[in-house]
Design a protein that fits this description.
Number of helices of chain C: 10
Number of strands of chain A: 14
Distance between the termini of chain C: 15 Å
Largest sheet of chain C: none
Oligomer: heterotrimer
Largest interface: B-C, 69 and 59 residues
Helix content of chain C: over 70%
Radius of gyration of chain C: 17 Å
Strand order of the largest sheet of chain A: 6-7-8-3-9-10
Number of strands of chain C: 0
Chains: A alpha/beta (416), B mainly alpha (253), C mainly alpha (204)
Structural class of chain A: alpha/beta
Shape of chain A: globular
Low-confidence stretches of chain A: 285-305, 394-401
Order of helices and strands of chain A: EEEHHEEHEHHHEHEHEEHHHHEEHEEHHH
Distance between the termini of chain A: 68 Å
Low-confidence stretches of chain C: 1-7
Mean pLDDT of chain A: 83
Chain lengths: 416, 253, 204
């Protein structure tokens, strides 16, 4: 018997009764497999996950027909809490899924174990072990609100690992993470798979998913469109010009094969390494295999004195004592300038100086000749537009038009 | 915002339930006492306890900030308008401060000060999670404990989100010095995304909690252990006895 | 609704318990945070109101009177950690949650005139309950110097302490509570239906 059996399942949410989220879907998942699920937005991927974890029908109500069996139990005849000891779930938003009540990472990882009523020593041991499994043993005393997205997501994984469920469902675990966070999380996922855990991972990030999963399912409008070995599934999807993001390596390899540049008897390369191996074996047509390295060396753009924007020996210390900017002097003219740097390098602090949200502790900033210390942010907003990282913090109006007008209205511009 | 100061003083080692019992007992006592001297004496004692715990300055400073305005206002209000005013104390031009009213005002002030100091000592000397575990051991519902802890964490979190939204708005020309109507409009435009966002996050969190046994009935156990020693029981029973004695004294005499 | 007939036969206690779904529990910290952040925003914007009960009213609207009342209680307990005097006003916040919730269940948040009436009822409840606390525990004094000055003014014009405190409360809070109620309703309506607790179907 398979670990998970979905039989002829049709489900419509109570809020969208005429539009079934899943239609006559059948699928089985074996112990120890790593199943990737992908598809377009609203295709039914999350619905699938919620069914296996019992969130449907126990939390999300609607019209349900068919059957879902997890480890021999019909999900309709149990509760979310009981199923949770067999099915671990990681959600998309890294922060919302933490309990919000823990003061340390260790307490967070122990939450489920505390509720299970295990002995105190076992709670500690299991929580610590699962934290080290996700590489967070050094962060056990950290406050959960001080974690990065990737760390937070790994903590969510650890707190589920501690429960030792039979299957792990990860519903878009990396879509809200920065590239570093994505790598961290996929490293943990592959490690878990190699230890024999059963994994179901929903993701649009096929670059990562296709390499690690041993089976890829594409869901389309509530039905399974393709289901099989990731490479084959993606090749078929690419042939059909299906609008999912085919990994670049595969797409290039496919075109090279179509053009006869790669032999059609060998498997199409999926990873950069595979591609390198295949391509390096083709010696005479070296031009195709020429590494597309970062050809141009980085060029320091020469700073010219100009009056658009001037930083003069700017220092900024946060009230906490952290000095975020130390002695920055530069001037910028028209054009596009990119500021790059690692997290915590001072990029945001720098940007907030541009419109006076922050004012230098030492030195001065001139925006078109205006010293930011002498003008209010609202006045500088006429000169400097600043867009922030989190779109939800910035958009307030119910229509796009109102939203666009908000800024100009505030600075007193005419309707045109 | 829960300003816990780690330490290993006798005050830190007390069971949180004991500290709460003392705070409640003192509150009852000061409201039974008829004049400011008793409560004032208790304030001095409490500052001594704070000194033992290692944070007398912090307690004194915060208590002063919190109750200072009350002292001034209550002495004025009661000193001038207390119904039992008979004995003039001080005349400033046309206004007269009366002895009875000033005394009552000081009583009110010291009562409040006792409660403030007792709670601040409890907060400063107790790891919040330990407080919850101690209460759960005494029968508090784990769900209530969760809600208290989560609220404690959510308040600063909301504050952070509010700041981010204000900054984003300022970047788009919101003027904090603008006229009242504009600032009021700004308030609404900030409130809705802030609140709606927080409410939408509720769905994920409830599922995540549910999946981690939040609704599970049956025995629970906790990572940290909060001992309830003989000292604790002695202090709690003594406190109860003192409360009863003071009550009897006030009612009988 | 199909189960509403069954509900009438249940005892009060189990009816209250049925309001406390996991979603309701999770909503409470959010309500507490909103109560607090309203105060932050008005401080930054230098507006002469408090907006410190929007969360209580909002939760009462979404999840009923009992969950609203608990939100009020927890708010004052949590904030007491930084300012212990707030504990004394916990009963006021609890009552606001209860009243707002019961008004909501009876449809008093559905039309504008009724929302205004609800705001006034909530304000009066708050004023009536806070008066004894202010008079007996704080000697008639509460909050800002401006508020105390107003109480002194009423005392000086011959009102007794009870009437002075009550009148001060009404004057200071009438605008505040009306605005709070409207913000709570706007926000509750702005939440997409699928994210609302089931209770909200009766109230909005």
């Amino acid at each position: 018997m398979s670990l998970i059996e979905i039989e002829d399942l049709t489900f419509s949410y109570a809020s969208q009764q005429h539009e079934p989220a899943l239609r006559n879907l059948s699928c089985t998942i074996e112990q120890g497999s790593f199943v990737g699920i992908t598809g377009l937005a609203e295709a039914g991927k999350s619905t699938c996950c919620r069914l296996i974890a019992g969130y449907i029908p126990h939390f999300f109500h609607g019209e349900f027909s068919g059957r879902v069996n997890v480890a021999g139990t019909d999900t309709r005849e149990t509760t979310i809490g009981e199923l949770a000891e067999r099915v671990g779930f990681v959600f998309e938003n890294p922060f919302d899924q933490l309990t919000g009540a823990s003061l340390t990472v260790l307490e967070e990882a122990a939450f489920a174990l505390e509720n299970m009523g295990l002995a105190r020593e076992e709670i500690r041991l299991r929580a610590e072990k699962s934290l080290s499994q996700v590489g967070m043993e050094d962060l056990m005393d950290r406050h959960p609100q001080q974690l990065s997205g990737g760390q937070s997501q790994r903590l969510a994984l650890a707190s589920i690992l501690a429960v030792k469920p039979e299957v792990f469902i990860l519903d878009e675990p990396t879509s809200q993470l920065d590239p570093l966070g994505v790598e961290e999380v996929f490293d943990v996922i592959t490690d878990m798979h190699s230890r024999g855990n059963t994994l179901i991972v929903v993701s649009q990030d096929l670059d990562h998913l296709a390499i690690h999963a041993d089976r890829l399912v594409v869901i389309d409008r509530g039905e399974i469109k393709w289901d099989g070995e990731p490479r084959e599934v993606l090749l078929e999807a690419a042939e059909a010009r299906y609008p999912i993001l085919i990994p670049d390596v595969l797409e290039i390899s496919r075109k090279l094969r179509a053009a006869g540049r790669i032999p059609s008897n060998s498997p199409v390369p999926l990873t950069v390494e595979q591609a390198a191996t295949v391509l390096s074996s083709i010696d005479e047509r070296g031009s195709a295999a020429q590494p597309i390295d970062s050809g141009r060396t980085s060029r320091h753009s020469k700073v010219e004195s100009s009056k658009e924007l001037v930083f003069e020996d700017v220092h900024y210390d946060y009230p906490t004592g952290v000095s975020a900017i130390r002695g920055v002097s530069l001037s910028l003219d028209e054009g596009c300038v990119c500021i790059v740097g690692q997290n915590g390098a001072g990029k945001t602090t720098f940007a907030k100086h541009l419109n006076g949200l922050l004012r230098p502790t030492r030195g001065r900033v001139l925006v078109r000749g205006k010293d930011t210390r002498e003008y209010r942010v609202a006045e500088l907003a006429r000169e400097v537009g600043l867009a922030f990282q989190n779109p939800d913090d910035q958009l307030f109006r119910s229509t796009v038009e109102e939203e666009v007008r908000f800024g100009p209205d505030n600075v007193g511009a005419s309707p045109e | 915002m829960f300003d816990y100061r780690p330490g290993d003083s006798p005050v830190h080692l007390l069971n949180p339930v004991t500290k709460l019992a003392v705070a409640v007992g003192l509150t009852v006592i000061v409201f039974l006492l008829p004049n400011p001297w008793g409560p004032a004496l208790i304030v001095v004692t409490l500052l001594g306890v704070a000194a033992v715990a290692g944070f007398p300055g912090s307690v004194a400073k915060l208590a002063a900030v919190l109750t200072g305005p009350l002292l001034i206002a209550v002495v004025i209000v009661q000193g001038l308008f207390y119904p039992g005013n008979e004995t003039p104390l001080l005349a400033v031009g046309p206004v007269t401060f009366w002895e009875e009213g000033v005394s009552y005002g000081l009583l009110v002030f010291f009562r409040v000060l006792v409660v403030v100091c007792a709670i601040l000592i409890m907060v400063f000397s107790t790891y919040p999670k330990a407080m919850m575990v101690a209460f759960i051991d005494k029968g508090l519902s784990p769900k209530l404990a969760y809600v208290f802890m989560a609220s404690l964490q959510f308040v600063p979190e909301m504050q952070r989100r509010a700041r981010a939204i204000i900054e984003a708005q300022q970047a788009r020309g919101l003027d904090l010095e603008a006229n009242l109507w504009r600032r009021f409009q700004a308030l609404l435009t900030m409130m809705i995304p802030l609140l709606a966002g927080a409410l939408i996050s509720v769905e994920t969190r409830s599922l995540a909690l549910e999946a981690r046994g939040f609704s599970r009935v049956g025995m629970r156990n906790y990572l940290i252990e909060v001992p309830d020693r003989t000292t604790d029981r002695v202090i709690r029973w003594s406190m109860a006895a003192i409360v009863v004695l003071v009550a009897l004294w006030r009612i009988v005499l | 609704m199909a189960d509403s007939t069954g509900q009438a036969e249940q005892g009060l206690f189990s009816r209250i318990a049925s309001d406390f779904t996991t979603r309701a529990w999770v909503l409470i910290p959010v309500g507490v945070g909103i109560n607090f952040v309203g105060g932050t925003l008005v401080t930054v914007l230098k507006l002469p109101i408090f907006l410190d009960t929007i969360g209580t009213i909002l939760v009462a609207l979404l999840a009923g009177p009992w969950v609203g009342a608990l939100t009020g209680l927890i708010t004052n307990l949590v904030l007491a950690v930084a300012d212990p005097t707030l504990i004394a006003f916990a009963p006021v916040n609890v009552a606001i949650g209860l009243i707002a919730g019961f008004l909501a269940l009876r449809g008093w948040f559905k039309t504008y005139p009724k929302i205004v009436a609800s705001g006034l009822i909530i304000m009066l409840t708050g004023a009536i309950l806070s008066a004894p606390i202010v008079v007996l525990a704080f000697g008639g004094v509460q909050g800002s110097p401006g508020r105390s000055a107003l109480t002194v003014f009423f005392l000086a014009t011959g009102s007794n302490i009870w009437r002075s405190v009550f009148t001060t409360s009404v004057i200071v809070e009438v605008v505040d509570k009306l605005i709070s109620v409207f913000v709570a309703v706007f926000v509750a309506r702005a939440i997409p239906e699928r994210y609302r607790p089931q209770k909200a179907q009766q109230t909005l």
